[in-house]
Amino acid sequence: MDTTVTTGADEPVWGGGNRPLNASYGKLMMWFFIVSDALTFSGFLSAYGFSRFKFIETWPIADEVFTHVPFFHGNYPMYYVAFMTFVLIMSSVTMVLAVDAGHRMMKNKVILYMFLTIIGGAIFVGSQAWEWATFIRGDYGAVETNGGRILQFVNAETGERAALADFVEVMPGDRIRHESEKGVWFSSESALPTYTVNEVAEGLRANPNILIRTEQIDETGEKTLLSRPETLERIKDAKYVVEGANLVRNEYGSRLFADFFFFITGFHGFHVFSGVVINVIIFFNVILGTYERRGHYEMVEKVGLYWHFVDLVWVFVFTFFYLV
Amino acid sequence: MAHEHKLEIFRGLVKFRSNTSKIWGVLIFLTLVTAVEVALGITKPAILTGNYLLGMKLLNWIFIILTLVKAYYIAWDFMHLRDEKSALQRAIVWTPIFLVAYLIFILLFEADYIYNVFKDGFVKWDF
């Protein structure tokens, strides 16, 4: 029974100075912070679950959104995120090894493992930045209807997604983006999409092999494909051309999907970034011999707790954003 | 301060010689679990996506359970919870589990209700 320890016979109960949990003040405070931060992330992920259950039949399918790997063309769902997960777990491992070396007062090993941890964290943050850039740029393009639904396009012959550029009829008389320096100084508009709704609609009529794919998920777990007559009818509702993603609309489907993606992975990425900064500070402290003089490397252990927590959160984000 | 490490995992099934080798062992296990998750996520076997348990696909149950398994080993072996007093372990683990379970319960039920309102209500949302 090591649960109840406060009333050990050899310890003065009321005199102060006893440590019922056998952990130092700093470590306990780090655990307090981690538990409260875990609740924050749980709030975000539960809110994501709320919105997803609310729009369960139209939610985007993650496999079809995150399909890119840097330097490779083609459709590789999940591989890159799996790589990112592995990098983060690996940097967690080097962090434990640093803590372990710290317990044994091996300064040079701590330096090496802290360095590797920082590199792993940097690779992860870089990968996340790349994911964001790819997500924001988008790849196929879509149109949005009056009711705010996203319509995507599929090539009926191959069954593959069709990019807008593959079938639009480019027409003369393009509208130019209105900028504040070219007119009234206080009025401007955001960037115009590459094509107009009219160009997309004309292209759709001219190409009989292009079909519309709606957001609706059918019983087999696939998005619903409209027939050719339905396609020609549906395109009449189109209002905007959507390319890539921003906080207002995105070409992948539900608006909340992109909002939660930016918010949750952004908040996690911010944690990784601050973790790397703290690791760098501690790294230099180790090099300067601060903990050697102090007689113990507990600071490395406390920073390690934070770093593992970041890894722990990612495991959940990975599951709920990319897998489920 | 947790200078002695408990070196056995899987309830004593595997016992490592040193803390370092335990860390590598746990890494191999976590990598394996992640690989299984990604493989299932890409292949999506029909037997797992077609069958439901408590309103959720079997595949999603597997993902969530494997995630909790990974979380356990990260917390227990990387964050050294295995070496802490059980009072500290319980304070850290059960507080969030209780609050999060409650939060998930109310939010998902409410969301399902709203889904039904959207679906069965006499308002057209897709126009």
Task: Give an overview in words.
The complex is a heterodimer of chains A (324) and B (127). In chain A, strands 4-3-2-1-5 form a five-stranded antiparallel beta sheet, with helices on one face. In chain A, strand 3 (210-217) and strand 4 form a beta hairpin. The model of chain A has no long low-confidence stretch (mean pLDDT 89). Chain A is of the alpha+beta class and 324 residues long. In chain A, helix 1 runs antiparallel to helix 8 and helix 1 (25-54) runs parallel beside helix 10. Chain A folds into two domains: 25-138 and 257-323, Cytochrome c oxidase, subunit III, four-helix bundle (Four Helix Bundle (Hemerythrin (Met), subunit A)); 142-243, no CATH class. Chain A has ten helices and five strands. Chain B is mainly alpha-helical and 127 residues long. Chain B folds into two domains: 1-84; 85-121. Chain B is built from four helices and four strands; from the N terminus they run E-E-H-H-E-E-H-H. In chain B, a hairpin with a 4-residue loop joins strand 1 (8-9) and strand 2 (14-15). The longest helix of chain B is centred in the last third of the chain and has 35 residues, at 86-120.
